[in-house]
């Protein structure tokens, strides 16, 4: 669905001829709505095939959000939040320009003091990038290349106009890694929440005052979070921040849990709608934690219902999508889960196998209660770790009955994972397939993110994985291709004879010339994937 350009209220160009004091931007891969798809952006973490030119990817994959003059009409929620916090702190809206990175050199001028860059995965060290650039082995992840490109322009703008460069966002910790030292011309790295410390730092930078190289943002309270003043990509609005279930591999759980009041959320949705953005993306670690107070994570059904009631009455909203849900919470209150699924299904824009479906990201992570207890004992609350495999299956099949299909992550190679643990994960996937569930599985290799409590753990590579661990990847992709492949290959891009032929030739060449002769683990995944593809293309 995405944006209807003609319906947008355009962001007015700056009246003054001077350049903005602050220019905010992010990599191209974060400045796109991917034609309204919430699933395709994951592919920004995949290798960029060397034979695919950037202009082709920019035209067909990370198509830029529209801009009016220089400023983007919709921006990532993180940049919009920073913009609102800066304005609340006293900057004038016209002091700040949020631009597409390809327009950075035009936007920065002699009056610009700060170039603020937000990135989720600047060095390609996130879960999806590390996993799938290793599997595909076709080059560096696209998001890393786009960050590199942006930093090249930022450096040029800095040299010409003397602005300072500060990088923040969820992936900024990556720039503190030893391998990032001297890689880019970054003056300051901002880690953590920007609501309180962000404006403090930007004021210091615009006044030329001293700021430490690495800044840790103070944790914000709900009242510190300023409402957005301009529209967001996907119509994203934050409904909660942080989690509290305490999974050791996860970053959001390190933040104090905050619930945004329903009225404030509705106002942000209204703002988006008034600017022509008719989609809503509810950003949360778990839709069912909304308004929750119980230490056992039993959902607060009244709060969740009230939230949806207030959103569905906003005139002009065409679609509502939720980022994440917790599988244990679904089993804890199936009446509530059923109602949420119904609303999301009515407001969804996806279909699968001829049926209208809603989608959401969930975490399975493991089929092993032992591993769950070790690294993520809170994930299954209010149930016990031993109940986890049956909770996963029960919640997923309940969701299927309501045409709410899960995109589920599975972590492979967590510290201390044994083959016995992996066997239990494999058994869980086989059960899920046996039940005919349409769950899209996203197996990921464990990455010690710099902002999680397992940050000191050793990184794994595919060469370190056992045969069983590799099997998880092969099994999961067989399931995905079988269930999602037929619809994918019916999409407009693949309906022509030539497109199908092109795909077949490219995959067969890659398989025969590269993957067939590749490492044991890559060949094992490629063999099974190719077999599954033959059935659907
Ligand atoms: S449940 Fe999800 S968001 Fe919460 S701590 Fe665990 S992985 Fe993180």
CATH superfamily of the largest domain: tm_1862 like domain
* Sheet with the most strands: spatial strand order: 4-1-5-6-7-8
Number of domains: 2
How many beta-strand elements?
17
Beta-strand content bin? 5-15%
- Characterize the biggest β-sheet: 6 strands, parallel
CATH architecture title of the largest domain: Alpha-Beta Horseshoe
Write down the overall mean pLDDT. Answer: 92
Reading off the top of the CATH hierarchy, the class of the largest domain is best stated as Alpha Beta
Radius of gyration: 23 Å
> Helix/strand-derived class?
alpha/beta
Which small-molecule ligands are present, each listed once?
iron/sulfur cluster
Overall 3D shape: globular
Number of helices: 16
- How far apart the termini lie comes to 26 Å
What's the CATH topology name of the largest domain? pyruvate-formate lyase- activating enzyme
Helix content: 25-40%
Structure, explained:
The protein is an alpha/beta fold and 537 residues long. It has 2 domains: 205 residues, Rossmann fold (3-Layer(aba) Sandwich), CATH 3.40.50; 227 residues, pyruvate-formate lyase- activating enzyme, CATH 3.80.30. The chain contains 16 helices and 17 strands. A 6-stranded parallel β-sheet has the order 4-1-5-6-7-8. Helix 8 packs parallel to helix 10, helix 13 packs parallel to helix 14 and helix 14 runs parallel beside helix 16. The radius of gyration is 23 Å and the shape is globular. The N terminus is likely disordered. The structure holds iron/sulfur cluster. The site of iron/sulfur cluster (SF4) has 12 residues, from loops.
């Amino acid at each position: 669905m995405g944006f209807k350009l003609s319906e947008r209220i355009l962001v007015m160009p700056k009246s003054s001829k001077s350049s903005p004091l602050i220019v905010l931007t992010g990599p191209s891969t974060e400045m796109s709505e991917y034609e309204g798809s919430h699933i395709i952006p994951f592919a920004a973490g995949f290798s960029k095939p060397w034979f695919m030119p950037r202009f082709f990817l920019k035209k067909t994959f990370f198509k830029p959000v529209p801009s009016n003059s220089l400023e983007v009409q919709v921006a990532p929620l993180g940049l919009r939040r920073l913009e609102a916090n800066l304005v609340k702190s006293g900057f004038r809206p016209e002091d700040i320009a949020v631009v597409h990175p390809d327009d950075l050199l035009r936007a920065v001028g002699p009056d610009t003091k700060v170039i603020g860059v937000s990135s989720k995965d600047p060095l390609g060290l996130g879960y999806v990038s590390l996993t799938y650039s290793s599997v595909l082995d076709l080059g560096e992840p696209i998001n890393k290349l786009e960050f590199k490109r942006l930093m090249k322009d930022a450096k040029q703008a800095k040299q010409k106009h003397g602005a300072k460069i500060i990088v923040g966002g969820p992936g900024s910790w990556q720039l503190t890694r030893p391998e990032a030292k001297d890689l880019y011309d970054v003056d300051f790295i901002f880690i953590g929440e920007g609501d309180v410390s962000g404006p403090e730092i930007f004021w210091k930078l615009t006044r030329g005052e001293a700021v430490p190289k690495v800044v840790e943002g103070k944790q914000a309270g709900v009242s510190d979070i300023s409402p957005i003043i301009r529209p967001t990509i996907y119509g994203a609005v934050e409904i909660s921040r942080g989690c509290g279930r305490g999974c050791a591999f996860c970053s959001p759980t390190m933040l104090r849990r905050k619930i945004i009041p329903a009225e404030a959320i509705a106002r942000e949705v209204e703002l988006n709608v008034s600017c022509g953005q008719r989609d809503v993306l509810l950003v949360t670690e778990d839709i069912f934690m909304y308004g929750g107070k119980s230490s056992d994570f039993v959902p607060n059904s009244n709060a969740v219902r009230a939230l949806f009631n207030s959103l569905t009455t906003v005139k002009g909203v065409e679609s509502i999508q939720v980022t994440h849900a917790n599988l244990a919470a679904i089993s804890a209150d199936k009446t509530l889960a059923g109602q949420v699924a119904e609303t999301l299904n009515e407001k969804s824009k996806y279909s699968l196998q001829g049926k209208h479906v809603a989608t959401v990201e969930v975490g399975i992570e493991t089929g092993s209660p032992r591993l769950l207890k070790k690294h993520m004992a809170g994930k299954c609350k209010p149930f016990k770790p031993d109940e986890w495999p049956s909770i996963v299956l029960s919640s997923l099949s309940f969701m299927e009955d309501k045409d709410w299909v899960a995109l589920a992550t599975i972590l492979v190679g967590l510290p201390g994972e044994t083959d016995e643990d992996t066997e239990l994960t494999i058994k869980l996937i086989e059960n899920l397939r046996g039940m005919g569930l349409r769950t899209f599985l996203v197996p990921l290799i464990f990455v010690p993110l710099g902002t999680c409590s397992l940050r000191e753990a050793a990184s794994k590579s595919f060469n370190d994985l056992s045969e069983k661990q590799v099997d998880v990847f092969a099994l999961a992709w067989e399931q995905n291709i079988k269930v999602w492949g037929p619809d994918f290959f019916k999409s407009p891009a693949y309906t022509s004879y030539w497109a199908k032929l092109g795909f077949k030739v490219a995959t067969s060449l890659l398989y025969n010339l590269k993957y067939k002769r590749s490492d044991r683990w890559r060949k094992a995944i490629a063999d099974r994937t190719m077999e599954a593809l033959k059935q659907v293309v």
